[in-house]
């Protein structure tokens, strides 16, 4: 029996917030930096208790906390993690120290505010993954928006204000829809309890509208084609640490939303719209890869590769079978690590050369071999080379997709070719060929130092651990996924047995229109 | 005994790690010997495994060593496990045996290379990946090795990533091309693995036999054609062979090891390994056989007009792989593996001998600048001659027996295939001796170059002698009528199909005639009657020009596939994404902005206030519904 630790999730969620408060109070940029880093490190170490005290094989929520928050509406402060969310929490707490350490090294402008916002962001992100109440989920979901908006808008590149506002308005539009969806759900069922909602029966019309509203909100966040155009702008303008977190964690709030809410709570609607979502997902895979191939700015290339990668994640979720969903959850983690690492590597190069244009480079393998070798490992992880992490996720997702509808697996597999194409094209331009620009030669360009290696190496180690021993993760993911799928299947069966007739649907829609 | 199989992997893994982390403090010789000894260690282990299997009765010669459960989701299982059986130990012995010789040879060949640590690291990594490919007991494990060798190949083709010349362009581009073209094959592999699991419920090779019984023939055909796509990538067959000639940009020992002896045979190995599926479909096998023989013919036709020694050998490799693939398609798995093994010997030998020439001429391999080298490089000449003779199918050498084994099967099963095979065999004999005569006989065409040529040192010539010996006697592993190798493989591939004695003798006779005819033709054309060659070239101009231009296959792919895709991608990136999708977004944004002007006064402009007002709004609406509607 695992040792239960009271308020563990609350502690993990709000430790960064407390850290943010202290960071704003202590004087001196140095102190603020190291305090922020210490906070994220402690949060990471505490979050490891989730792993060590995990009850293996248990499908339900663990480390549950449940307090009434606002009684009249039944809003609760309810937290918990299961196999679906565990590794997203750990991904967040793992990536944060890396992002913060990067900022410790390279951010000089308004350090206190910057660090406080980063920590605020961490609380919001963890909150999204552990919230079991719809209102609480929404509060955290929205709360993540604000720090990221400021991080891009204040610490970003030349076009930061445009990118920040676009990011905000775009995802904010999604949020507005989510409010509507939450209300629809509440008035249909009378509860905000996410777990109860997964077992609830809702009329098809309600399901349809709520599903569409939730889906739009999450599709923007993910981002699913064609709602992705905020992403390249946001990434290109965001500071490196912001990109790491944006790609690494923030996007997963969208796919997590699909997986936790949209798909299981509205099973019938989800089934109807599944093929549409899967189509958008594979378009994203192929389209994102092709656009990535043409990018001249490495950051923008990585951003479009995210569109492709998140397409795989979505595809697995839509498949709604064990391989697809478990694969998707692992792939969320994989994408967070690989793409986070890609942004980190690009950032490290940018700090040296103050450019991210591929044409400006060439021949780096001769001048900075350690950097280049690690970049190749990261690129291969992103390209899904077997033995590294990405392959396990992508393959199991395609397995799931095939058993959902074979055509999607075929198209997704074509994406594997394109991924190698754009990544190797970038590598070719950056690392191979001759050194034509003296700024890239051995005398001017320094290879990675110890501190920088300390950020990259943990990521690379995880690539191998996940690639070679994915069952360390699947053992914890699978039970919850299988339970969720069983519940969903039971609800669907029940719904088919009762058969909401078509005219009733029209009626409800008419009533709602009034 | 079999538990020690982990050592097979541990040696090259350890070698690679030592070189990666400590190589910078070691000399070229030390690094080279660490890498070489690691592979020698693996070779010893693979011989021990073979002896271990020999000690078992035939029906028990299939030992699975389970390491850990790799991927498990619901009813999907992929273990990390190795399969020790007659097929895998033969492959392991070839990979580590030829691999060890080439490692040692490399110590001499790469003696002036400043980035030697990288080179030997890649080489050991390759061995590790190749062993994973041939030893894994399931599709996914094999695929790990499959992609791993692809990565090693990419790294080694582009080893001189900052170099370019007229023959190859940027070497780095050749590596990139190899990886991406192989990914097209992987597309087939991935789908095949998915369908195998979805229809059979397992990805473990030893369970395929049992599970495959209730597989519909159409599904089996589909799976096998997808596997064939994978094989055409790795084993350089039509339509994906185009990367292999360019792969010669890599250091010559790499061409010998990866792009002749081992990695490129992975497709052949894979078909043999999955023979349980191929038994269920005749169609896929026939397609495979035709792909193989047409590739063999096409590549031979190109080889005969190439002027770079390595390119001749590269197209020859494509051609010989075609024979193996064809044999596998005709279910002559024993013959396919036989030719795979002998080809590993004589083609590695030919490449290493070519490398010896290259080492002496400082990189010049254009046969129009060579000639008369036999006096200055006697060992290289003699060993190259042995390799060429084996390739040409000169009687009693290893290549004669193995190629004949394939031709006889074609003679028995499909006369059209056999005719293509005979023509190809004739071309093979001609181009191999063209290479010999033009390079080593006659007068030096570039006296200046000739003056500086010298024989290579023993670290390079000893591996040549060993491989030459193997190329001569390698045939004994599967002599006609004795068929040691085929009997050894029976636990994996089933009973050998009997070939009537008449056919066997007829086949052998024709093979001998063809080989001798080919050599004599080459002698006439390139040695005694050089005018004939010119005349012949003129009268066959209609064929020669396309062949010299490699039938424009690269150009056709470029126009039909690469450019349209790039054009589409460019249109997406330059127009569709920023103008259409983002244009719509910005249009909606602008419209909202206009509407927003009206209510602007209500708002203070700070964006977080929006978020706050959302919360307030939520609560307000909730209250409204709760108290007034509910």
Count of helices of chain A?
21
Gyration radius over CA of chain B: 29 Å
Number of strands of chain A: 2
Poorly predicted spans of chain A? none
Overall strand count of chain B:
4
Outline of chain A, from the CA principal axes? globular
Give the topology string of chain A: H per helix, E per strand.
HHEEHHHHHHHHHHHHHHHHHHH
Reading side by side through the largest sheet of chain B, how are the strands ordered?
Answer: 1-2
Distance between the first and last residues' Cα of chain B: 77 Å
Oligomeric state: heterodimer
Helix content of chain B: over 70%
Keywords:
heterodimer, A: 514 residues, mainly alpha, two-stranded antiparallel sheet, B: 630 residues, 26 helices, globular
Structure description:
The complex is a heterodimer of chains A (about 525) and B (about 625). Chain A is mainly α and about 525 residues long. Chain A has helices at about 10-25, 30-50, 85-105, 110-130, 135-145, 145-155, 160-190, 195-200, 205-220, 230-235, 240-265, 265-295, 300-320, 320-355, 365, 370-380, 390-405, 405-430, 450-470, 470-500, 500-514, and strands at about 60-70, 75-80. Chain A has a two-stranded antiparallel sheet. In chain A, β1 (about 60-70) and β2 form a beta hairpin. In chain A, α16 (about 370-380) runs antiparallel to α18. The model of chain A has no long low-confidence stretch (mean pLDDT about 90). In chain B, the strands form two sheets. Chain B has a two-stranded antiparallel ribbon with strand order 1-2. Chain B has a two-stranded antiparallel sheet with strand order 3-4. In chain B, a hairpin with a 3-residue loop joins β3 and β4. Classes of the chains: A mainly alpha (about 525), B mainly alpha (about 625). At the A-B interface, α5, α6, α7, α12 and α14 of A face β1, α5, α6, α25 and α26 of B.
Indicate the topology.
The complex is a heterodimer of chains A (514) and B (630).
Chain A: H1 8-25, H2 29-52, E1 62-70, E2 75-81, H3 86-106, H4 111-130, H5 134-143, H6 145-155, H7 160-189, H8 194-199, H9 204-221, H10 230-237, H11 240-265, H12 267-293, H13 298-319, H14 322-353, H15 364-367, H16 369-382, H17 389-404, H18 406-431, H19 450-468, H20 471-498, H21 502-513
Chain B: H1 5-22, H2 28-54, E1 63-73, E2 76-84, H3 86-109, H4 116-135, H5 139-157, E3 164-165, E4 169-170, H6 171-200, H7 205-211, H8 217-234, H9 243-246, H10 252-261, H11 266-273, H12 275-278, H13 282-303, H14 309-329, H15 333-360, H16 378-392, H17 398-413, H18 415-440, H19 447-452, H20 458-473, H21 484-493, H22 501-528, H23 530-539, H24 541-548, H25 553-599, H26 607-629
Antiparallel strand pairs in B: 1-2, 3-4
